[in-house]
Design a protein that fits this description.
The structure is a single chain. The protein has 180 residues and is α/β, with parallel strands linked by helices. It has a 5-stranded parallel beta sheet with strand order 3-2-1-4-5. A two-stranded antiparallel sheet has the order 6-7.
């Protein structure tokens, strides 16, 4: 399913359109940073809001379809001066200058399953992260999976809408606490 989402940026945007809590968190955490390197920028869910606040973003992703959608959004919002789009693999990407701030939002780092590749990615980031720099990695933990599995909040799945694609359709359901 993940590969399908990454190949279809419209589906990605649909699935994550309601995920906004972390945007204000990133705005707060990054208020003192003017230049930010974002790994797994995708279609700009975090990139765009940061750029509209005046931040300069190096938006890195290895999925061309996601970056095409991001570039369209950048042009539409006239953010070309704020955002540099880079098509690269986060494991092997090497930046040509030192950075003070690197982020990997929405569990992007969890996409790297192999521990050796995770170490390679972190080593590459470390090469150009300044001594005073910060690295923010959002991770799924075992506890997250336990909460989903045990569902201690009484949430239920709710049908949101159907998303048509050239190879069929996807139904978008969200697990939410219903207010009935």
């Amino acid at each position: 399913m993940l590969q399908t989402i990454l190949k279809k940026p419209e589906l990605y945007d649909l699935l994550y359109q309601d995920v906004k809590e972390d945007i204000s968190l990133y705005k707060t955490l990054l208020k003192d940073y003017n230049e930010i390197v974002e790994y797994g920028a995708g279609t700009g869910r975090i990139t765009i809001p940061l750029a509209t606040e005046g931040k300069r973003i190096i938006a890195i992703d290895n999925e061309e379809n996601m970056l095409k959608k991001l570039k369209k959004k950048i042009q539409k919002l006239n953010l070309e001066k704020q955002i540099q789009v880079v098509n690269a693999d986060m494991i092997t990407y090497n930046q040509n200058k030192e950075s003070n701030c690197v982020i990997m939002p929405l569990t992007v780092f969890n996409y790297i399953i192999d521990e050796e590749k995770q170490n390679e990615c972190l080593s590459n980031i470390h090469k150009y992260l300044s001594k005073e720099g910060i690295l923010i990695i959002e991770l799924l933990t075992k506890e997250t999976f336990k909460e989903i599995e045990n569902d201690k909040y009484g949430a239920e799945f709710k049908y949101i809408k159907k998303f048509e694609t050239d190879d069929g359709y996807y139904e978008y359901w969200r697990k939410t606490k219903l207010n009935l």
